[in-house]
Write a structure and sequence with these properties.
The chain folds into two domains: 199 residues, UDP-n-acetylglucosamine1-carboxyvinyl-transferase, Chain (Alpha-beta prism); 230 residues, Alpha-beta prism (UDP-n-acetylglucosamine1-carboxyvinyl-transferase, Chain). By secondary structure, the chain is an alpha/beta fold.
Length: 437
């Protein structure tokens, strides 16, 4: 699908969707629990539905309930939460293979976390996904799982299709984590190994540390006993735990909130983003600190945050190691800032759905912005963003970032593969008056 976005200001309130990171973790923990969970207001997107399908493939029963009818397909409460509930009957670690292959579609989070979960069962589980997923390597995670006694089989370079067969036997492994999802996978699975099994993980490289803090917050809420080095370079986890049901609402998503926040930065706002909790462990809340450094006014309230700008945006140097998903939208903000902006220490942005450093450099150049690639960085010279035709490369964050870029451009911007935005933020393009072409 191609959309055309004409430049125009936007003010008012954006209702931020639920967090993908929270939704997927809660679904997997609920599926692994011994009881019935009620998950309120989860993210209703393609990635979340992929996780639902995988949990059902493990044997969990998931019933979706909606507090509305077909005449009102997308209702929201006053905080912008979609009125959806999942009732999940967990299976503990008695996983059963209910499909020839579990298809994660485009969800890398589901794939990596579910690979370790599958190792808790004795049956073989095969995972596949779309074209992008079949290019994303799980090799370091698979090597660690093999070191813990799990049988693994994968295509070239550890890519899907991947087959996993337990049991999970514990032991000590070294796991480099260019993506934090490798480590989160083992942290979620290891406590459910058999009693007296100990899993020790050396972590010589860890990117995206806030996502590990998020995963650990779930282990803490479940009463899981573990030990860790202060710098997260080592973990020791003890088997014999069981998960209890997950209940309650899913927090709003800071990764998604970055896009309307940047709209305010570009067009001046003010924009209010409802439902965000400043105490949440999500790392991408750092976006608001970065925007403040660039000259925006950021005000937190009990119901969310407001963003506005009175003066010009300023360039700067921003370390995105902990927040690589912000690279596409920060590159757009930098395009409108005075001077040079360097987005650094973020080589792992190249191993997401696309090589986001290369893709954003290529597409912003089409809009008249000077960009320089480094192996682990993107350097952007602020200037005048022109209209034109760009390609979203089937990457949801690239599509949404380019859509935001169009709002302050000198002319309309046409974006190809725009349907990818529904992976994590259904309705975003509609909310900014994108027109299908």
């Amino acid at each position: 699908m191609r959309v055309v976005i004409s430049p125009h200001p936007i003010s008012g309130t954006f209702r931020v969707p639920a967090s993908k990171s929270h939704t997927i973790r809660r679904l997997l923990i609920a599926a692994l629990s011994n009881g019935v969970s009620t998950i309120d207001y989860p993210l209703d997107s393609l990635d979340a539905r992929s996780c639902v399908a995988v949990c059902r493939g493990f044997g969990a029963s998931i019933i979706e309930e909606r507090d509305f009818d077909a005449e009102c397909p997308n209702p929201l409460d006053e905080d912008g939460r979609r009125l959806i509930h999942y009732t999940v009957q967990g299976v503990g670690t008695a996983l059963t293979s209910r499909a020839e292959a579990l298809d994660v579609d485009n969800s890398g989070t589901t794939l990596f976390l579910a690979l370790a979960v599958a190792a808790l069962g004795n049956a073989p589980f095969t995972f596949t996904g779309d074209e992008q997923i079949r290019r994303r390597s799980a090799a370091p995670l698979l090597a660690a799982l093999a070191g813990l006694g799990v049988r693994t089989q994968a295509a070239n370079n550890g890519c899907a299709p991947i087959t996993i067969q337990g049991p999970f036997k514990g032991g000590r492994v070294s796991l480099e984590c260019p993506t934090s999802q490798y480590l989160s996978a083992l942290l979620l699975a290891a406590p459910l190994a058999e009693k007296d099994l100990i899993t020790e993980i050396d972590v010589p490289l860890l990117n995206e540390k806030p996502y590990i803090e998020l995963t650990l917050s779930y282990l803490d809420s479940q009463g899981v006993v573990y030990e860790k080095a202060p710098d997260f370079s080592f973990f020791r986890l003890y088997g014999g735990h069981s998960y209890t049901p997950m209940n309650g609402p899913v927090p709003a998503d800071f990764s998604s909130a970055a896009f309307p926040a940047c709209i305010a930065a570009i067009t001046g706002g003010p924009l209010s983003l409802s439902g965000l909790d400043s105490s949440d462990a999500q790392g991408d809340k750092l976006m608001f600190e970065m925007l403040a450094q660039m000259g925006c006014v950021v005000n937190w309230t009990e119901r969310g945050v407001s963003v506005s700008r009175n003066g010009p945006l300023r360039g700067g140097v921003f370390d995105l190691n902990a927040t690589p998903d912000l690279l596409p939208i920060m590159a757009v903000a930098a395009s409108y800032a005075e001077g040079e902006t360097a987005l650094v220490n973020v080589a792992h942005a190249r191993i997401k759905e696309t090589d986001r450093i290369a893709v954003m450099a290529s597409e912003l150049r089409k809009l008249g912005i000077c960009c320089t690639e480094r192996p682990d960085a993107l350097i952007i010279q602020g200037g005048t963003v022109q209209g034109g035709e760009v390609d979203g490369h089937g990457d949801h964050r690239v599509v949404m970032a380019l859509a935001v870029a169009a709002l302050g451009a000198s002319g309309p911007v046409s974006i190809d593969s725009a349907e990818a935005a529904s992976v994590t933020y259904p309705g975003f393009l509609h909310s900014i008056a994108a027109e299908c072409a």
